[in-house]
Specification:
Layout (H helix, E strand, L loop, with lengths): L5 E4 L2 H8 L15 H7 L12 E6 L2 E10 L4 E7 L8 H16 L5 E6 L3 H9 L3 E10 L2 E10 L4 H11 L1
Parallel strand pairs: 4-5
Antiparallel strand pairs: 1-2, 2-3, 3-4, 5-7, 6-7
Length: 170
């Protein structure tokens, strides 16, 4: 993808638009409740205490995705959503590259991680292309329900850990 994406902290109208995205088939688990319901329950970017962690990404004037960047004690959690109309077109990888740059500026030296359902091979492949490696499997329960997830990391400083992570993910 040659296009440069622009980004900024999430805005109110973008939250509404993201809640209207509709994923098909097995990916429908990622469909969000209405924005009104998210506000009532203080979920995700509708939680005023968490919205500062969210950024939206644009290809010209088209909203193609968002991220949640959450600094933790020793690392930084990344959550990502790509507009279903733009999945499998390289946007996820580009968004993660920009997100990595944001994190390097805001949280220098902290490794990044994300968690993805093990069945979501489309996302796993995207994250691997963006430099993340699977380090372990974990059972988690999210607001979307329980599931088996891969814990994926990037900026692994110890090459032996990276080698082990790559071998164990095969």
């Amino acid at each position: 993808m040659e296009t440069e994406l622009s980004y900024h902290p999430i805005k109110e109208d973008e939250k509404q638009a993201i809640c209207e995205w509709v994923y098909d088939g097995e990916y429908s688990i990622y469909n969000l409740p209405s924005y009104e319901e998210m506000k009532e329950k203080n979920l995700g970017f509708a939680n005023p205490q968490k919205e500062k962690n969210f950024y939206t990404y644009f290809d010209n004037d088209t909203l193609v995705g968002f991220t949640n960047i959450l600094e933790e004690e020793t690392e930084v959690f990344i959550g990502i959503g790509v507009n279903p109309d733009f999945c499998s077109k390289g946007y996820g990888q580009k968004i993660l590259e920009i997100t990595s740059q944001i994190c390097a500026q805001k949280y220098p030296g902290k490794p990044l991680y994300l968690e993805v359902r093990t069945w979501n091979q489309r996302a796993v492949a995207c994250y691997e292309r963006a430099g993340f490696v699977i380090t372990k499997k974990v059972q988690l329960t999210t607001q979307l329900g329980p599931g088996l997830f891969y814990h994926m990391e990037t900026n692994l400083s110890d090459e032996s850990i990276r080698d082990t992570a790559i071998k164990s993910s095969k």
